[in-house]
Known about the structure:
- By secondary structure, the protein is mainly α.
- The protein has one domain.
- The chain is built from two helices and no strands.
- The longest helix has 38 residues, at 2-39.
- The radius of gyration is 18 Å and the shape is rod-shaped.
Amino acid sequence: xxxxxxxxxxxxxxxxxxxxxxxxxxxxxxxxxxxxxxxxxxxxxxxxxxxxxxxxxxxxxxxxxxxxxxxxxxxxxxxxxxxx
Length: 84
């Protein structure tokens, strides 16, 4: 039974590390897109609602990517933190 649990923990750790690496690769592009939408907010008033919605979605994606990066870093160091 303990071998099965150890194998599962190792697999989860590898998944967290891979997810963290993928998130760190996506973060610069997400930040660039977020800045672009924030800069264009003063433009066309018809597009303002879309841009506000897009800014909220991108900000949430940035927060998720940062959280996954932290989880990957924690997994690399040997510990996993549960998601709040």
